[in-house]
Structures are given as structure tokens and as C-alpha cells.
Amino acid sequence: MRFIHSISLMCCILLAGQPNAAGKLKSTKVPRFDVAVAKSVAYLQANHEEFIERDKTLAAYALLKAGVDAKDAIVAEGIKIARERAEAGSYSGYDHIYLAGVDAMLLADSGDPEAFIVGLQNIARYVESAQRADGSWSDGPQQPGDVSMSQYGVLALWAAKRVGCDVSPGAFDRAASFYLGGRNNDGGWGYRPGTTSGPGAGKSTHNMTLAGAGTVAVSRTMLHGPKGYRAKASAEDPKKFGVLAKAEADDPNVGKTGSVYPDYSPKNSAGNLDDSVGRGISWSNARFQPVSTAAHKIYFYYALERASALADLKEGWYTTYGDGLLSLQESDGSFKTHSSATVGTSLAILYFVRSTQQILDKQYSGGVMMGGRDASALFGDKKKKKDIGPLDELLAAMEDADLDKLDVSADDLVEKIQFGSKEDLIGQIDLLKRLLDHPDATNRQAAFFALGRTGDFSLIPLILKGLRDPNVGVNSEALQALRYISRKPRGFGLKVDPLDGPATSSEAQKVVRANAWRTKAYRTWHGWYASVRPYKELDGLDALELLSTGGGKR
Q: Of 64, 169, 410, 458, which has the fewest beta carbons less than 10 angstroms from its beta carbon?
């Protein structure tokens, strides 16, 4: 593997004659991810003449979502190919549904979807006609439905519907039934449900499980509205982490969060769909793997981005898995995967720029883009602040504000909690749980510290969550809390500091080191708890996984 070396390298690439990359790309709000996207965009632009026909529309879509202008030669060529194919209705062969899905997304998100409405309606009609009786799609009439291709069938219909095409609600409902009926007992999905065909030989895999969860979530969004969607803060209300940017919203559906089909009665309830999505995400998180090891490595991240956006996951996943993806980037800016470097690089861009989140923000919140986190989310920072009052006042203030307003140091905060009585802490458990999702990493550190000092064994599933937090200080505090509650002071030999190791000034190497620590720590402690948890937890690991990922009560 090769890694991003410096900002200056990015600048050299951008200045090397790539007309549509410099100065126009959307920011991820994470500087190291911005560098990765710029390098990937430059790679696609420098190698576009080598693209095979099948990959041109996907590359154009990735460039468009990254902020490259629709008039750019590569993007324009992709749009032309998609339009001609859509208007001719010429979809056939193994890739027919994949191509239809990518074409539909490209045309729908082109900025002028009305110009392509005829082609998009053709795609919708074709995809609906190709849907099998069980709600799936496949590469041929003799093959069982497959989770991956069915994903792109649903994506095609979603794209067509959100720009006003006629799409039957039953198509989404049938697709949801296929996924719910084809899910494995462990909560994940295999490639072709009910068979041993393909990767995993019928067993759940990361790629298929995230594809399944994301596709069910699309159906949920269409049939019942987006799960827990909240309009993001306006540009006039900047937050500590990230910069908010407001885009124009001329879509008449903006702000509407209910079902797209208010007169249709779905066979699949929102609760059943949410449960299926949650179980799938929990399956993946229980097998925490920020650096993909699959043959189709980068496919995993794009499926994760879609599932995470549609399932309304709490923040933290984006940076943690994004750092894992970052470690797979080649020195030339590409991301290699089983299909091709063009496909891998395009899918990586779609993850980093949060392609699905862009769609949701435009349609449901008036175009307000969500703020992200910069490098301080991983490495943190310390500020000198002053002391405040009693423990209960401290915790209450932490809930309502960040520590900048409290004006206390992290050391003072820990001392205040450490010398507060155990009874005081136990009485504040509900508040401490809420602080685990606070945007200020110092607040999260303090909450994990305090939960550990309660000595409450039942809190371990929640504390496990801290081992995957994007901030290494939080990781350390969660580990210490687990050691305290479990009475294992050596903690299976894991180092307290995720960055402990040979000296390095490379941010990329620190990211790799932190991710390796997180993977090992989570798997080790998750495995231990699974072997000692109380017998009364009769639902296997589902309850543990849901709690530790924030997928339980919201």
C-alpha cells in the first residue's frame, strides 16, 4: 500500500494541467480527505483515455459529485453515453442493471434532469420490467436474484423517482421483501440468497451486507420517508467542527420527509425495515474492518456511505472508515479493486464526498450541507481553561455546551469526575450516555472515563463504542474504562495510546497505526464480552452490537 505524502504533492498534481480539478472541488471538511479526493480526481482526468466504455459513466458520476463541472469533457462524455443509452433503452448482458443504475444517477444528478426526463423514464420502465417476481434483479432469467445487482435496480428507480418519473411504489416494496426474506440468520446478506453462489458461498459478507442494508434503507425512504432525518443547521449557524455551506434548492420536494407515495399502503412496515437495516449494520460493526480485505475492496466503502446516510447513523463512522480507505490509495491517486482502478477510484471519491448525503441534504433540508471534522477529530487538541463548580453542574453544562464555553481544562474535568462520588456518577448515567455522542471529543473522553468509574458491568456494550471513536484520546479513555470495569488492569496487553510505536511525523502513518489499534482493540474486547456477558442476554450478539454502535434507542 502507498499513502498520501504531503499537501505539496497534491498542489503539484492540481497544477499539472488539470483544468477542472483546482479550486472547484467540494470540500469533505476533512483536510486529508480533500487531498485524497483531489489526487483521485487528477488520476481519473489523466487516465480517461484508457477508460473502457462500461466505466465511463461511473467515472463521470464520481467527478460530478466531487464538484467537477458538468461541462468538463470527461463528465460531458459520460452524460452523453448515459443519455443515448437511456433514450434507446439499450440495456442488455450481465451489466444491464448496473449500467441502468449508474446512468440514472448520473442523469438525475447532472444539474439539469429535466433535459434527460425521457431517458430516465425509459430506465425506470426497463428496470421495473426486469424485476423478478420475488423483488430481485439478476444477470439472466436462469440465475437467482443477487443482492448486488438488486441494489443498482433500486438505485435506478430512486434516481428516476426523485426527478419526477413515474415509478411504481410496489417495485420498492417488492425489493424490500426480497432483502428481508433473503437475509441470513446472523443479520447479514450473502451474494445470492438461498444459494452458495459467489463470494462467501452463501455466508454473509461485508460488501453484500452493507449493500443489503443500504438498499433496504432506500426502500424505507421511499415508502415511509427518511429515517430520523433532521435538517442540518444553516450557514448562519456555524458549528465548532466543520464549515456549513448552503446550496440552492429549487426542488419542490425539498423539506418533505414523509412517504413519496402517501396513498400507498406498504407491505413492509418502517419498523421491520429499520430493524433489518440495523441488524445489517450491526453485523458489519461487530466484525469491525476499517481497512477492507475483500476482492472488491472499494465497493464496501460506497455501500457503507449509502447505508450510513440513509440509516441516520451518528457521526464517527465517516472519519474512522475514511482513514481506513485512505490507506488503500496508491501514490498516483488511484484506488485499485477487482473490477478496475477506474471503478475503485470512482467509488472511493463517492465515499469521501458523501454522495448519498448530498442527495438527502438537497431533497430534504433545502440544500444545506453537513459540516464535517478536520484533523483534530483524530488527534484532538488541548485548551487551557478554568475550573468550574460541582460534578452535577459540570455534567449538565457539558450536555448543553462544549468545553470552550465551560472554560475548563481536560485535566481539571477528569479530576472533577475522578473525585466525585460513585453515587453521583451512577445518578448521572443517562446524561453520560448522551455525552458519548457529543461533538466535542473532550466531552466524550470525560463521559467514557466517568462510565468506567461507575463499575457498572452492564455499561460495557456502550463503552465498546469508544474503541472505534475517530479521536485517539477517546479510544484511550474507553480502553481504560473497560480495564477498570472488567478488573483487567493489563487489558489483554493492548497499549493505552493508539499511536504508541516508532517515532513518525507522517500523518498517514499515524492514521494507519490508529486504525490497526482500533481494529484489534474492538475485536479483542468484543470477543471477551461475548464470552462472559450475562446469560439473560438471549438475543445473541444483536443487543450488544446495537448498543455498541448507537443502533438501539435513539
A: 458
Q: Which of 492, 488, 490, 401 is nearest to 438 (CA)?
A: 401
Contact 74, 41 (CB under 8 A): no
**Among 123, 126, 211, 134, which Cα is nearest to 170's?**
134
CA atoms 374, 110, 259, 156: torsion sign: negative
Burial category of 442 from C-beta neighbours within 10 Å (exposed 0-12, middle 13-18, buried 19 and up): buried
283 exposure class (CB count in 10 Å sphere: 0-12, 13-18, 19+) = buried
Q: Are 514 and 476 in contact (CB under 8 A)?
A: no
Q: pLDDT band at residue 258, thresholds of 50, 70 and 90?
A: confident
The answer to whether 440 and 407 are in contact (CB under 8 A) is no
Distance set, CA 398 to CA 107, 186, 401, 405 (Å): 46, 38, 5, 9
CB 529 within 8 A of CB 485: no
378 within 8 A of 514, measured Cβ to Cβ: yes
Return the axis-axis angle of helices 206-224 and 299-310, rounded to nearest 10°: 30
C-alpha cell at 7: 499537501
Q: Which domains does the chain have, with CATH numbers?
A: 7-378 (1.50.10.20), 380-548 (no CATH)
pTM, full prediction: 0.65
Residue 534's closest CA among 456, 464, 434, 463? 456
- Look up residue 112 and give its amino acid: D
Residue 247: count of CB within 10 angstroms of its CB: 13
420: nearest Cα among 451, 400, 448, 392: 392
pLDDT tens for each residue of 292-344: 888 788 999 999 999 888 887 766 788 888 989 999 999 999 999 888 999 99
- For residue 403, what pLDDT band results from cuts at 50, 70 and 90? very low
Question: 85, 76 in Cβ contact below 8 A?
Answer: no
